[in-house]
Design a protein that fits this description.
By secondary structure, the chain is mostly helical. It contains eight helices and no strands. The radius of gyration is 29 Å and the shape is flat.
């Protein structure tokens, strides 16, 4: 994925200036005078799985027309806080989030509003799982699976559980890439609680390994210091007397 600095190395940094954008190389960070966080870009509001495909298509078209599609397709990522692009990114990204939020039915807005908490970031695995499970349960309450007495209900439930596992894995930090791959290759795929236990165990192993490495490094440092002559000993730094090669004295 391209970084924000790489993707925008040739772009100006003023985010609210319609004159800084040209027709051949429009600046995605630029906010036009008509851009408003209260605007609704699409007439069809997202109400859940039932209309997501059609809603997603018109939303992509609308954001492309606004020259903001790169904020959601991964081309423009979040820059470092000390980057000259950080302020421009924050303004433009917030505008995009507002447009998406305004295009979602009120019953599921809370899940969209707190979407960032479904990523681990600096959280412990247990805290990340708690946040993830809370939002998943809230989404299920707002948009429950249809009631059905036939076998299709079991298929829908299994698909929902599999989607939850996938989203949980994708929200983990990159240092859990190995356990993520292990779960994705498992057949059948374990359920969410089992995956949580596996990731929690991996976190414990990482902590133990890190602690052991620190102890070994400390012991090695102590050993090196202890092996050095004591500078307080008057004989510690005494040099051997030179011996004459002729008489041996």
């Amino acid at each position: 994925m391209a970084s924000a600095d790489q993707a925008s190395s040739n772009l100006v940094l003023d985010p609210v200036d319609s004159s800084d954008s040209n027709e051949l190389n429009p600046n995605p960070y630029c906010l036009k005078s008509g851009d408003n966080p209260g605007s609704i870009l699409v007439t069809e509001l997202l109400i859940g799985r039932i209309n997501y495909p059609s809603w997603s298509r018109v939303m992509v078209i609308a954001l492309t027309a606004k020259n903001k599609i790169e904020f959601i397709n991964g081309v423009i990522g979040k820059p470092e806080a000390n980057s000259p692009l950080y302020k421009a990114w924050t303004l433009a990204n917030t505008m995009v989030l507002s447009w998406i939020y305004n295009s979602v039915n009120k019953n599921i807005k809370s899940s969209v509003m707190y979407n960032e908490t479904t990523r681990q970031n600096n959280l412990l695995v247990s805290d990340y799982f708690t946040n993830f499970k809370t939002l998943t349960d809230e989404l299920m309450n707002c948009d429950p699976l249809p009631e059905c007495s036939c076998g299709a209900m079991r298929i829908l439930t299994e698909k929902f559980e599999k989607d939850c596992v996938m989203k949980f894995l994708m929200g983990l930090n990159e240092n859990y890439a190995a356990i993520r791959t292990q779960v994705l290759m498992a057949e059948p795929m374990p359920d969410l609680n089992k995956v949580y236990s596996m990731v929690l165990h991996e976190e414990m192993q990482k902590n133990i390994s890190s602690s052991s490495s620190s102890e070994i490094e400390a012991a090695a440092l102590y050993s090196n210091v202890s092996a050095k002559p004591n500078s307080g000993n008057r004989y510690g730094n005494r040099k051997e007397r030179p011996i004459c090669s002729h008489c041996g004295i």
